[in-house]
Every structure is written in structure tokens, then in C-alpha cells.
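Ticket opened by: R.M.
Priority: normal
Category: complex prediction / small molecule

The reporter submitted a protein together with magnesium ion and asked that the result be attached to this ticket for the collaborator who will pick it up next week. Submitted input follows.
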Amino acid sequence: MNESNGDKERGQTEVLSLTRKDFASDQEVRWCPGCGDYSILAQVQKVLPTFHLPREKYVFISGIGCSSRFPYYMKTYGFHTIHGRAPAVASGLKCVRPDLSVWVITGDGDALSIGGNHFIHLMRRNIDLNVLLFNNRIYGLTKGQYSPTSELGKKTKSTPMGSLEQPLNPVAVALAAGATFVARTIDTEIKHLQQMLERAQQHKGTSFVEIYQNCPVFNDGAWESLTDKATRSDHVLTLEHGKPLVFGKENEKGIRLHGLRPEVVALDAVAKDDLLSHDEKLDDTTLAYMLSRFDMPQLPVPIGVFRAVEKPTYENLMQRQIDVAIETQGEGDLEALLHEGDTWVVQ
Amino acid sequence: MNESNGDKERGQTEVLSLTRKDFASDQEVRWCPGCGDYSILAQVQKVLPTFHLPREKYVFISGIGCSSRFPYYMKTYGFHTIHGRAPAVASGLKCVRPDLSVWVITGDGDALSIGGNHFIHLMRRNIDLNVLLFNNRIYGLTKGQYSPTSELGKKTKSTPMGSLEQPLNPVAVALAAGATFVARTIDTEIKHLQQMLERAQQHKGTSFVEIYQNCPVFNDGAWESLTDKATRSDHVLTLEHGKPLVFGKENEKGIRLHGLRPEVVALDAVAKDDLLSHDEKLDDTTLAYMLSRFDMPQLPVPIGVFRAVEKPTYENLMQRQIDVAIETQGEGDLEALLHEGDTWVVQ
Amino acid sequence: MSETVEKPIEELESVIIRFAGDSGDGMQLTGTQFTNTTALLGNDISTFPDFPAEIRAPAGTLPGVSGFQLNFGSRRILTPGDSPDVLVAMNPAALKVNLRDLARGGTLIANEDAFTAQNLKKAGYASNPLEDGSLNGYQLIKVPVTFLTMQGLKELGLPKSTAERCKNFFALGLLCWLYDRPIEPTLRWIEERFGKLPEIAEANSTAIKAGYYFAETTELFPKHYQVKKAPIEPGKYRKITGNEAAALGFVAASRLAKTPLFYGSYPITPASDILHELARFKNYGVKTFQAEDEIAAVTAVIGAAYGGALAVTGTSGPGVALKSEAIGLAVMVELPIVIANVQRAGPSTGMPTKTEQADLFQAVLGRNSESPVAVVAPATPADCFAMAIEACRIATKYMLPVFFLSDGFLANGAEPWKIPALSELPSFAIRHASANGGETFQPYSRDEETLARPWALPGTPGLEHRIGGIEKANLSGNVSYDPDNHAAMVKLRAEKVERIANDIPLLQVKGQPEGDLLVLGWGSTYGPITAAVEQAQHEGLKVSSAHLRYLSPFPRNLGEVLGRFDRVLLPEMNMGQCRMLIRARYLKDVVGLNKVKGRPFMISEILAKIHELLEKGERA
Amino acid sequence: MSETVEKPIEELESVIIRFAGDSGDGMQLTGTQFTNTTALLGNDISTFPDFPAEIRAPAGTLPGVSGFQLNFGSRRILTPGDSPDVLVAMNPAALKVNLRDLARGGTLIANEDAFTAQNLKKAGYASNPLEDGSLNGYQLIKVPVTFLTMQGLKELGLPKSTAERCKNFFALGLLCWLYDRPIEPTLRWIEERFGKLPEIAEANSTAIKAGYYFAETTELFPKHYQVKKAPIEPGKYRKITGNEAAALGFVAASRLAKTPLFYGSYPITPASDILHELARFKNYGVKTFQAEDEIAAVTAVIGAAYGGALAVTGTSGPGVALKSEAIGLAVMVELPIVIANVQRAGPSTGMPTKTEQADLFQAVLGRNSESPVAVVAPATPADCFAMAIEACRIATKYMLPVFFLSDGFLANGAEPWKIPALSELPSFAIRHASANGGETFQPYSRDEETLARPWALPGTPGLEHRIGGIEKANLSGNVSYDPDNHAAMVKLRAEKVERIANDIPLLQVKGQPEGDLLVLGWGSTYGPITAAVEQAQHEGLKVSSAHLRYLSPFPRNLGEVLGRFDRVLLPEMNMGQCRMLIRARYLKDVVGLNKVKGRPFMISEILAKIHELLEKGERA
Ligand SMILES: Cc1ncc(C[n+]2csc(CCOP(=O)(O)OP(=O)(O)O)c2C)c(N)n1
Ligand SMILES: Cc1ncc(C[n+]2csc(CCOP(=O)(O)OP(=O)(O)O)c2C)c(N)n1
Ligand code: SF4
Ligand code: SF4
Ligand SMILES: [Mg+2]
Ligand SMILES: [Mg+2]
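Result attached by the on-call engineer:
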């Protein structure tokens, strides 16, 4: 967990020339063989150098879970906190250190079960953090209980006859809570995953990225129909801003709106102009919300950016109040503060 | 807090003849003069007798806050728990006692700040509880800090220069979390409030009712534009299942959809058929979600039932698994259980 | 102001007044104004408000009663006073709730206009106590306050309800004459406060004058009283409550440490006022964060500490319970945070507006596994300033969580505070680790003296490292499941706390350094204990007192001090929590005096116990 | 099975074997099968698995090593054993991690095929320990397990990886021969388990046989060993782990009390298995609720208790921290809940897969204000059954929260359990309040003996009442801020816990009832303490032992027992938590022996301390 600090004095040129390896710590990666977390780690380590930020400016903060071991593998600052609380720890950090690039790494249990409250409040606060939720629809670290994103009827150790709850849809919940940036991607979609990471980093405000991740040990194949070559193109809809919603092996299918009801149409029968178009910049979240609800078998599952709108960030508003207070009342003076209010002198 | 129990042996006829007074406990009501909570209490006490359930079948469970003192004033079973946890306490109770009519009383801080996690999980579990959220957009009991539903820029004791967070929309969050019944009403709309309480009681599954409530002491007039006679009809849209969305003093205005964008239109210019119609029974929550986002000044604020769909309740599914297990494995026998697995005899 | 014939004036050494009325009657304001005037006159003072639990319970009811007690004198005043000499009762409910505390033979000033049939019923009186002789044991003075106020304001032509609402100022005027306090400071205050509402300002000014002149004129008051200046240390003073002092202390610590303050909190009685106070100090760079719950508050604070802020979270007992898991994280990652707990009566929700000091166990021992922290406790409202700074100093120097244990009594109680010169404040420099030419950075290396690990801030080139709640290898900070490392780290974390004992003052004994009896205290019991022991010493008893402001670790000489006394009495507003810690550690048979009534100790209660113990044992 | 010439057989009193390999090597299975066979032979046994922290750390690495230790004998076996006599190491990492525990001169059976250059590197070996002489102090037996397994399975024509995966069965066969255990029980088990996969079944059967015959034939093993039946109490037995026993105990309590069980929990190591076990018992009417977090788990359980269920929540230390606030609510509303805490090493996340017993403070004292609860702690894995029932009995009889303090050592450790007859189980009837003709119902009236308030269930006509976390008026249960009532209620709640002392067994001393030294223990230290004291007694030392299974309240005679011994030694897997409680209460200078290494005590560690104390003091 140590770094030599020989690179203290490096200049901008060096920063520019960082590579993927520069972001790999000396700790052995200890996920199970075949775990989707490996790919996510690799993509993060690949894109970070392209942001031209020096390594010390990155902080990875996680809760508890398999996914939350992520910070140990990054040669940046890292904090493996407690279960569910990474969003709050990261919020405190970002409030006092807006200069840092802070990433929250969390799992479906960590973010949505024990951490659900911090999750929704982070979304509405719009603190400039990047949140990566590794959704494997299972509790990995505790060896396979169902999670808040597990499908109804899921059989696990804790639910031998099947679970009884409707799964939470992380994208829908984030949108409803007011998230300004919401995206979804898949561990195996390497390029797309990289793009989403870049978009998240570019966005000022809370960026939420749900990543479908496979847990080969406790929930193998959870996303198979989206990753399997044979079915992938019929089941995945890639969202692109300003573009009509099309999918299928030869982009032969599209989505049309019938009142408020989306339907799949064959492109040869329908003009492209009649298709529903994606717009990630809408202030109204209805479209994004509708898309978040698309699911198999009726509709393809969207990946990409659901929403990306600019709003003031919490930490900037916070700093602005301080600036205004100093402007109007003058920089605080301890002496004056102690002598504030009614005083009297005893001789 | 005591009741004489002379009515132990009463029969069905007596049950039928309960009145509002039978639901008032002997405790003095201690809200501030003019508090909106009084009206809500009165409506609850008025509608309960119409459900023809004996008093002992009702349980009111609350968290902490002004609103959460509610159970003390009901001559039923009552449990004033701890801050934010009423949904979980009520869930445990209902799981083991599906025979009871369990009501959760909560505030905007109680339900959405400290209790946000239990709130979303209650919604997705669909346990048959009635949740009344008294939304006064402020922390009343702790004397006036901003709450998760306070508007951005709210000046309070804890935010003298204004709050920094986008408010949460309770209806939108409940819908996104999968709530099967979601409604909204206003403390001063006595009849409508009563209707919503009735609908909540009729619904099997979690019924969530947001009640706009005025706190004259710390947030007076929060809902004024919706309750003021002069502006009310232009600002409030009453949802009715299967009916087009119209509002205004003389029902002269309606809502039309332009793609996914709702707009206010004058009814003389537009045919009623072109208006957006309400449908609370849709499995897809997009319409309900869109409505939940309606807000002044562009759009009127909807009250009424946003969604009411039947799904199996958690406690029934739970019981069903037990029934199936007993059917297939036989009623558990302690002797057999102790002797389960590999055993050996030592002579 | 005294144009009429002077009535005789009698000198008193000290007076205890309690103002009591409906929450709507403005008794807190009356009390505060009287206090401010009194402070300006140079008396020593101590005050304590007693709020109702409800925001605004129905007018005239018992739960709606609001009280404010003030003790002032020409000698040192250590507590708000055991039992009032004077009770001002603005309605029957106020009388009912407060009469039991009034000293036998004490003065009772009652607003007779409020003793209507309806109000009597609300307060549960069968007959009017002002008439039925039940108050014969007291000096009852019936004043038609409401009527006289309305009379006085008649000419202003105000709406009835507005005029009536001025009756607290009438009462204030009356008391001012009675205890020979000028009304000018209040007139000035009214001017400032209501300047923009001239009608209200005039009404209030008129009312206070009316009260003053009425008292001067009426035969109800044949004489009045004087309380001379107290021999107070020279200096500039202000009145301060514990919560105000704590807030100032945190800001001061931030300035002293040249480190911005981050305060994360979720509102809870009686701690919320610290948040409110700090939210005002934005021009001091203070960032306040109202979190979604206590868990978010403390974890955000841990994040802020990680980022290099002076990081403080504040709450009361139930909130600390929720924070326990995260405090354990701070112990493990050895980051400096301060947890201010303004204790209230429990368990569970308990009695939120009442005081208690029963969260000591929770602070010292209330986490999973071996999770040692430091604990400090202010002794008086003003001491909250000094101990808030101490908490910050210890946390940042030793890199660990520090509890600051205040309570409802300190938080809302007020006393005069001699404003310290900046030069008197402790200085504490904060050092952050920086890269050190090529050497491998060891996030869990340690300072030889304090055993603190380096505070290495994200953003510092070359110090990239990872921390977390899993057991850490010493030095490297890597995850470690090594059995011997774990044992070593458990001991290191405990030793770090123990070392603080070298860095805090020794326990001071007031009175003889050895003897029959030591009365030991901690936290807000300081006032009553000190007063009782001084009284006992005055009576010639061989009793001394000592006060713990550091609870973890204890001052180094505690064991030795205990050894010098035959017996040790430890009064606590709990069932014996500090007593247990001391008994376990020093095997000394410390005797407890335990009060869990949601109220501070009375001097007399402690004095009685001293008498009892010394009678049973030897008498000096 | 022994067609060849019989090799000589030697009798042993007891043997400690540790199986160690990569997590993928199936060592837990091997150990379990060996244990089951051994149990059927009538030996006494004790086992303890040592899981890696990672789900599946990379193959061949040190963190990926999984171990299983078994102690069996023809005499009473109290612990899984201090240091193995035999270590089976399936790869270099397993050797590296476990060698330090192997008894000097002990037998080391190594799978030499796994000692490849790559594996040696992964384990951090510079040279091959099997070759470089570094293992000279041990009896090294190198077996090409992988090769021999493949050979044995050649005819089955399986894919290489499938065949290779059978090597644990080969090793099992080998050990079976070596300790003269039949392989038939395992063959039967394979049949049952893999019946539907005949290929796998055949492969495994073939592998175990191959191992058995190889051992019988090879000159590597010139003799084998026999461990005779232990003189165990007659009866029907099964092997049981602490978590299994706890789950059974809760179901049994539910049946005994004729009250359905509701178990609310959030998964956490090492408590999750109780949830998994209970989820299987739906035909017993058990309702399990996997909550969104620990707070929801415990509050749902409070709701279930309110509704009349036997309500239990289970977790480990960090989870208890989160539950603290709600447990305080249960104290205030006096509802019966059981909190099962399967303790793990801390603080914070700590070492989740390792054991410790450092949450005693948290259980007894870890809440805001005065918040007394009862605490019980099982002494052995099987004792979890009895103490789970006790926890439920006490909670429902006294109407309060009860902690059940297990730990990782008990939870995963196994021992033979003599299955009790139903008639031997404690009976406990639960009474619910019912309306009582016209009388006003008092939800806070109390049973004279237990001080319990009535358990009045919603749905009962005529008992409508309100409860909550604000202080309650005695009898009526109304909200009360009355100072005297609060003091009385604080004392009542404490007294309720104290009264339990009349209802639990007295502390039993094993050995002389008085003497030089008492070794006192609680929880999972029972095994090593008892074994060490028996050994010391055998050596003629005047030492006795006593074990606390009730920590709050303590057994009534604890003070008296302590008084009968010159010295008291209290070994604990913490820094002295029980010791502190005892010192504070009885002012007895109890000596601690504290181990916080994530591992249970070794018998020798305790014995050494006994020797040290008795040498310093007088020798018997
Ligand atoms: C307070 C607390 N409760 C429970 C746990 C146990 N726990 C650790 S991770 C986890 C869930 C992990 O699931 P998820 O967040 O989906 O991460 P994954 O392992 O699947 O990546 C649980 C229940 C804990 N560490 N702390
Ligand atoms: C654990 C805990 N934290 C904080 C509090 C203090 N508290 C009580 S009620 C409340 C907020 C009340 O707001 P809301 O839920 O909106 O109810 P209202 O009073 O407005 O009806 C707070 C912060 C508490 N009682 N317990
Ligand atoms: S258990 Fe699943 S999520 Fe966890 S490391 Fe293994 S494969 Fe990945
Ligand atoms: S403070 Fe507001 S919400 Fe609370 S009782 Fe008073 S008016 Fe109602
Ligand atoms: Mg997961
Ligand atoms: Mg509110």
C-alpha cells in the first residue's frame, strides 16, 4: 500500500504521459477468476491517464463488498470505508476538497440496500463525484444472498424458496431522486464502459454509472442475454444523444411512442422520423425515466447516458456562500468573534 | 393511555356503530394552534368508523416528529417508535400479524431524511400498510431546520443563507421504488383527504399518501398557493381515474401531451378527447411519474391517486411459502428437527 | 428614574428568581433581558432555562409551561440555584409546575388576571390557589399584570392581542425595580430589535416602564433590594451558554490550527443550536453540512478529516448510538474527528429537553471490539469553549476520535465568560505529511511521542496510499490478517489514548490535599459540587473536591489522589458510570450519589450526602 | 478392506489433524467427511475451520489458503487442539501459512506435485522446502497426490481437470487408512450427494479408495494408528456447529413457547449462516426477513415482538453498533427481543473471518443513557442450542432485550451434541394480557416476581394502548416528564435485569470450591480453560475453574465464589472486558490473560499463565 514518492516533483509533461500501469497498485488483485470486476478495474486504469490529472488528485472511496475492494488496486488515494457509507464519506471529502477527483465504488447491496439513503441524498445534492455501481444482482462478499436488484423469486441461501421483493431499478431511483447524470453500461462492453467513464468524469455534478457486472461464483449469467453474442444486439439498446432509438443486428428495429407507450417497430415499416429520439439534456426526466423502465422481453435494455444536465454543484454553492459571507461581512476575525454581542467590563 | 375494556365482548353491530369519538384517546392533543396535523387527525378519526373494523384491529406506528405524536391521540393500538424507523417496525408487525390494519404516520424528515432507506424498501416490498406522510417541508419538532422536501435556497436556522439541495419529490421517489399505490392530498381539502384515506385502506399492498400539511410556526404558507381560495383552482389538478386532466375555476383548462411534453391548454380551443387522460391502473409508471413532476408555475400540482395496481403483498407471499413448505414437507416436528442429518448412537 | 419618595432598599448577597409562564408568554425573553442587565451590573450569574417538550403545547396547560431560572449575587455564583427565592408565575399552570421548587417562605408574584376559571381548570386546580389559602406559606403578591399592561398601553390604540403580549415586559419592569436594576439596557435592546417595527417597540418600552413605575408606586412592594457587584476577576465579559461556547470553541480551534472547520450534523435536541451557531460563521470559512441522518453526518465528517479539515460532528445520545459503527472506522483509520454529544435524559428518546450525563459508557465503551477513543467533558457553560478547543487539539495531535461530552444543562445554561485574549489560547500547529525524497511512504508509521500516524492528505504527490476499516499492518497500512499484527495494533491504539495522559493537566484538588472525603465530579456537576464542598468546608468539614474534565484517559495522578482520601464520593447524573470506570481501574470503593431526574443536582442534595458520609465516618 | 498383510497398528489417545490447501482444493469437505466418520466411530471430537477472507483468492496464494482442524480422541476433547500433530498440506501456500502451528516433530503430509516452481513463487518460497532441508524438524511424508489421483482415475476417461479435482478424496482415503477409519460412510455420502452425477460419484469413490489402498500398500506409512471410542455419555449424537445449534435453539424455543419465530437479519460474516439455516425451516412456521440493513432488521424484529412473535435478530459486532439506538427503544418499551451477536475480530470491519469476544462492553453498556439488558453467552458450539433457548426464555419472561453472544470460533466450530429428549428442554409458557372485565388496562403494570410488564398484543379487544420511546409513566405508560417517575423507571429497568439472577443457575466451580487460584471464563474460552485447568489439577496444582454463561446479570453467587479464592485469572479474547465489569462490581483484583489475535486460546497459553501465577504465589 506504499508508493515511493520519487515522483513528487514531476511536471505537467509527466502527468500527460501516465499510463495504465501507473494506476495499478502493488496489491495482488483478489477477485475470483472470471469476475466482472476485473474488466471494470482495467477500463478505469485505462481511461484515467487520458484525463491528464496527476495521480495524487484521484481518490477512490468504497463501501464494503467484493466490488468495494477496488481502491486497494488503484495506485491513487483510496479509502475502503464501511458498508453503504461511501457516498457520505466522499461527500464530506469533496465539500472540503473540491480540487480532487473523487470516485465512489459501490455494489448493488452496498449502494441500494444498506446505503440506499445516502444514495438518494447524494443524487439530489449533486456533489461532483463519480459513482460506479457494480450491479451483479447478488451479495458477493457474504457469499450469495439476494440483493435489492435481484429478480423476484430469486433462490439464494437466504431465500431457498425464492425472494419476495420487486427489484429496485437503480437508474430509475437515481432519476427520481434528481440525479443530473445517469448512465448504464456493461462490464464486458469494454469500449462503451470506457466512454461512460469519460462522460462521468466530464460531468460536473454527481455522475451515476450503473455497471452490469457478472459474478460467476454466486450469480453467473445474470446479464447473459445482454452479453451473449447471439442475443446481445436484439436485447441491448444503445442510447445516443439526439439520435433515434434503434437496435438489432442490422439496426433494423426502432422504438416508437404510442401515446406514452413505447413499442418496438421494424424499421422497414416505419420512417426514422417517427421513432422516439433520445435527448439526455432534458430538464424533465420523464423520457429518461421511461427509458430506465425498458426491460426484456417486451423492450430492449438501454445502455448509455440517460441524463446529463448541468446544475450547480453542492460544493460550489457551499463555497459561494462562504465567499459571499466574506465579501459582505469581511473575513472572519477570531478576536471580533469572541467579543461579539453584549459585553461588559469588570475593573 | 389506558382504555377501560368494557367493550371486550361487543359484537358486530357495535363495531358498525363506532363513531369518530370512539377513536379519540384521552390524551390532550398538543400540536401548535393552527397546525395542519389537527385536520389530518380529525379526518382519520372520521373515516375509520366507516371501515367497520373493531378498534383493536388498528395499529398506528410513527417515527419521531410533530406528526409522529399522532398515535397518542388515537384510541387504538399505537407505537411511537424512533426517528425514521416506523416503516420497518410496521413491516415486522404486519409480517407476523396480517390480520391487523397497520398505519404508518411519518413526516418529511422522518420518512425521507433519516428514514429514506426504509421508505424505498417498503415501497418495493409492497407490505399491506397505509403510510401517511405529513409533508410540511420543514423539521417541526426540532424547531425549524430545512427538510428534504424544502425548496432549494430555503432559509432556516441551519441554513441562514439558504439550503443547497434540490428537494425530493416523495411521490416520484415512491413510484420509482415500485410503490403500488401512491396518492397525494392536502390537509385543508377535507373531503379529498377522506377519500384518499379510504382508497389507501381499500388498497391491498403498501399505500402511500403524501399529505401537504401546513406548519404555521416554522413554515407557514408552504402550500398557500394550493390552499388559498383565490389561487387554488388554477394551481391544483385533481386526478380522476379514466378522466381527462382538467382544472381551473370553471374546469376551463386541460393538459395535453406534446410528444412527452405536457402543456396547459384552454378547453375552448381544444377537444376534450385530445387531452391527456389519467389512468391509475397502468403497470408502466411513466404517466404517474410524469404527473408527479408537475409543478407550479408551468403546470398545476396534481392531487389524487397517481397509481393503484394490485400486486401480491409481501406478507402473503411469505405466508404462502410457509404453507407450501408445510404441504410439501409436513408441519415441522421439533423431535425430527433435532434428529436431522447424520447421527450416531453411543451405548 | 426615581422621582417619587425613595422606598427603603435592602442589601442581599444573592437572589434566585424563576420566571414561569406559558410558552407563549415570552418568559425566556424576560429572563434573558433580566440576566443581561444583571450581568452589566457586575453580579456573578448563572441561568438555566426549562423548555417545554412540545413546540407549542396548548396555551394554559401544564406541558406548555416554560421557565427560566437565574441566580445572581455579589459573591461567586456556581449554579442557577437550588430553589428560587422568587417565583414569577404568569398563569395557574406555571404556578402548579413550579411551586414545589419555591423555597418555603419565598416570594410568589402571580399574574392574578390569568387565574380564570378556564385556566385553573386547564392546570388542574379545583379552587383558585391565590384565594383558597393554600399559599399561606409563601409571600404571595398578586398583581393584575394583564390588566395593568393593557391600561398602560391604552393610549397606543393597539389591537388587544398585541397589547396583551407585552405583559412580559411589564413583569420585567416590575422585577427591575424590585431588584434595583436599570431598565435602560432593555430599552436600548428593544430599540435595536424592533427598530423596524416602531409600534411594537413603543408598546414594549411602554410596558416595561409601566411595570417599573407600578412597582415603585404600589404598596404591594414596601421595599426593594440591592445586590452589589461581585468580586469578579477584572476583564471583559460576556454571557454565554454551553452551546454558544462550544460553537465558538470549534471556530477558535479552526483558527488556531489554521485548518478550516467542517461541521456535519443532523438536528437533534439539545445539540441543534451548535449547528445553528456555526451556520452563521461562514465568513470564518466554516462549512456546515446538515446531513440526511447521523450516520451520514459522522461519515461525511470522516471524509472531511481525511481531506484535512478540522472535522466535528454534533448530536445527542440517540445520534451517537447511530454513529457508533462509523466511530469505529475512525478509530481504525486513525483520523481525527470530534464527536460533540450534548447529552439528554434517556434511554431511547427519553426526555429530550431534560439533562443527564449518562452517555459516558457509550462514549468510552460503546462500540464493537476494542475501540478506544479520548473523552473530554466541560465543567461549566463557559468551559465548553476551552474543552471544545482541547477536543480538537487532542484529536489532531493523536489522530483519533475525541468525544466532547456536554449536556442539556450546560448547553442551555449561561454564565459570564471572561473573554480570553487570543494569546491565552493554546496554540496547536497541525502538520501534514509530505513526500520525503524517495523514501517509501508508510501511512501507519508513528510519531515517537504521540504514536500518531501521519496525516497525509489526498492531493499530496507521492503519498498515494489506501486506508480502510480492515485491520491494518503496522507501518505499511496494508490489509493484514496476521494474528500478531492484530494484537500489536489493538495495543497500539489503546496506548495512543493512554499517552494523552502525559499531555493534559493533573487533577487539582480544591481544599486539603488529603483528608476524610473527596467529592469527585465530572462534567456539569461542577457547579453544585463545588458550591456544596465550599459550604461544607465553611462548616469546618474535612472535605475536598476535584473535577475531571478528562475521562479518557484519566489524568495521570487520579489514582494517587484517590489514595489520599479515606472516602471518595462521586455524584453523577446517571447510575454510576464514571464511578464504575474508576472502581474497575483503581479498585477504590468510590461511593456514588446518583440522580436521574432530568435535572441538575441541587447543592443541598450533595451537601446532605457529605453530611451523611462524614457523620457515618469521622467528623472533622 | 484389508486384504494385504496387516501393518502394525499403534494406539493413540488423541490426534490433531489439520487439512490445508487452496480454497479450491476442497479441504473443508475433506475435513468434514473425516470428522463425520470419526464421530460415528465414537470418538470425542472438536473441529474448527479457518476460511480465507476472500471469496476465491487467486489459486496458490497465501490469502487463498483454507484450513480445517480436527481434534479427536478416546478421552474427552475440549478444543480443536493447540497445535496439529499432522498437517496435510496440499500446496506450498498451505504449508507456508500452517507450518508455524505444526507441533515440532509432527507429521507433515505434503502433496509434492503441487510444489512447482510457480506455486513456490506464489507462496513466497525461494527454494522448495520439501527439498531444501528446512523441514528436517518434522516427519515429512511427500506424496504425489495429484499424480496418484490421476493414475487411479485413468480408466474413467474423465477430463483432466475433473479428475484432478478428486485429489482431496485421495487424501481423505489416505488419512482414513492412517487412522484406521472406514471409508464406507464417505462412500455412502458420495452416493447420496452425487447420485445424479454418476460420473462424479464414481470418480470420487475411486479416488478415496485409491488413497486408502495406496496408504495401505506404500512403504511411506510403515504403521497406522487407532484411536479408541471415547467414554461418552450414552445417547444419540450428531455433530453440530454453533450457528446450526443457535438456529435449532431458536426454532426449539419457538416450539416450546408455542409462538412463531420471526428472524430479521442483514447478512454479515460470521452470522449469516443462522439466517440461512432458519430460512430452511419454513415448515416450522419460521419467518425470516432479510432486511435492507441492520437498523431495519432490529426494528422489524421489535415490530414482530410487539405483534407477539418470538422475535430474534442476528448479526456481528458492526451490525450491533448500528442496532444500538433501536435496542434502546426495546429497553424503553419493554418488549422481548433477542439479539444474537456472532462476534468477530475488530474494531470496525476488522478481520471478519476471525474470532474475538470483544463485544461484551457493547452488549452491556453500548447504548445512550441507562439502558440495561440481559446478556447470555454459550460456552461451546453445542451450548449455543441451550443458550439460544435461554435467551428467548429470559426475554419473554422479563420483557426485555437479551443478547446472545456467540463468536466466530463457536459459530463455525463443531462438536458432538447429545440430542436432548424434548422432555429435557425447559418449558416456558408465554402469557399475553387479556382484557379483565372493566378494569382499566395498565400497560406498565408489573409482575410482582419478574417486574415484567404485560405483553399485550394488538388485536386484543379492550387493551388498546400506546407505547413509545419517550419516558413512560409507571403503570399507565403515558408519556411522562416527571422527574421522580423518571428516576423510578430507570431503577425499575435496572432492577428487572437484576431479578433475572434469581432465575438462572448459580456459578459452578469445577475442582476445589476454594483455593489458590480460580480460572474464570465466559463464552468460547470454555474449552481451552477447562482443558488447561484439568491439566493443572492433574499436575497437582490447587486451581479450579468456573464458567460464566450469564454476563448480565451475573450469577448471584459470583461475588461469593470470587471471595473464596486468593487469586482469580480471567482469560478473554479481548483486552479485559469481563474483567473490568467484575473488578468494578466486586472490587476484586482479577488478573487478565488477554489474547486478541483473531484466534482462540491454546490450552498451553492458559496453562503457562496458571504456572506463572502459582509460581509467583504459593505452589500447591
Ligand atoms: C454493517 C455491515 N453489515 C453487513 C456487512 C456484511 N456485508 C459486507 S458486503 C455485503 C453485501 C455485498 O453486496 P454488494 O454491495 O452487492 O457487493 P458485491 O460483494 O456483490 O460486490 C454485506 C451484507 C458489513 N460488512 N457491515
Ligand atoms: C436519531 C434521532 N436523530 C434526530 C432526532 C431529532 N428529530 C426529531 S424529529 C426530527 C425531524 C422532524 O421533522 P419531520 O419528520 O418533518 O416531522 P415534523 O416535526 O415536521 O412533523 C428530528 C431531526 C431524533 N429524535 N432522533
Ligand atoms: S464472489 Fe462474485 S463478485 Fe465477488 S469476487 Fe467472486 S465473482 Fe466477483
Ligand atoms: S411546529 Fe409546526 S408541525 Fe409542529 S405542531 Fe407546531 S405547527 Fe404543527
Ligand atoms: Mg453485488
Ligand atoms: Mg416536517
